[in-house]
Write a structure and sequence with these properties.
Blueprint lengths: L3 E9 L2 E6 L2 E2 L9 E5 L7 E5 L2 E9 L4
Parallel strand pairs: 1-6
Antiparallel strand pairs: 1-2, 2-3, 4-5
Length: 65
Amino acid sequence: MPRAKRIEVIRRGTGCHVLVDGVELPAAIPRDSHVVVAVNPDERPTVTVTLTADQVTVTDALHDE
């Protein structure tokens, strides 16, 4: 799968949207992406996904409008 052209991260209030080439996640994660699953019995399990793109933009707002 080719590298994404643009990744957008939009955070407003307590919500977060991630769009990869205009498609909002959750979506199929590219097979060649770096995925790390951390499971610690004392903490909430997490998954970290590393996506690469030609351009990344982040919009961060404290309050949902």
